[in-house]
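SAMPLE LOG
Freezer: B-3
Tube label: C17
Construct: single chain, 348 aa
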Amino acid sequence: MDLRNLVPLVVLTVLGFGPTSAADEPAATRAFEIRNDRAYLGGQQVDLWGLRCGNALHSEAITERHIRNLDNMAAHGINLIGVYIQGSNAGWPDADAALNGFARDGKLKPAVAKRMEAMVRAADQRGMVVMVGLFTQRKDQEFYDDAAIQRAIEESARFLSERRLKNVFVDIIHEFSHPERMDKEIFREPDGEAKKAKLTAWFKAIAPDIEVGVCPDINSGTGDTYPGMDVRIIQKEMPIPATGFVVNVETLRQDIYQNDGVFNQGNLEHIFAGCQQYLAAPNAVMMFHAAFIQGITNFSGSAPHAEMGGYGTGPNDRGVQFYYEWVRDHVGRWEYPKHVAVSASEER
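STRUCTURE (predicted):
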């Protein structure tokens, strides 16, 4: 059966418009695990290549666009997508335009939870993994207090666990201790290790089998390890550690929100050099970050883009197709549980 025919049914059912029953037990997805600093999915070791799609849950339409592009991602070897319940930097014209999927008291908004489940289940159909981010420094100040933060963590863990969404790992807080925009004390230094361990313990008390990490801000001096951590999360130009299962959840962006999806030769050389670094590091995974992918509206007027677009050569060719094709040509197309080398005719 063509999996693409299942997408509308999955989306409609998860969003509450399809045939469901209160007695129905949700089907479990494949389980993501970390063993000996390597990624496993459904018991099979997998090599992950990702995209940072921080605002993919912004609306039903945007989530649907991402789901409809999963087949194209897999055809190009991309099998990891990162989404955030509290949306990430929205770029231009309003950097704070992203959706907050939590209420001020920490309640997980049902519509956002349903979109997240639709995304996770559609990814599972293709043998893909989803990184679920909880909090960002764009929205942390909207919580009443630490009790609301604890509730948000617990509700997220409970939703993932009860809905048996296992092909995931979690970034609890993006850019811990950001010096300018992180407001809540529990998300800042000092005593960062203890605070990160507390946040992780709140999650693990409900969902002990889901892997968790915390992303440090690159310029804050906070560490990238702490007690209880499963995923060693880094960002931007942080060096790749030799130990741990390492995920760079945000490679250094090379296009700008005011002219998204346009790259010069220097930008491309930087991106491809980074790809080579991660290709050579078997314990490390990268999530490619671009304004074209993450921003909301942007100068293009149509972001966030779930689609790869063009080659980024100018305003009439905006896109990140070069990254898709680099992964396809150097790693292979994704056919769970492995990448498959493409032929010369497929490369053209």
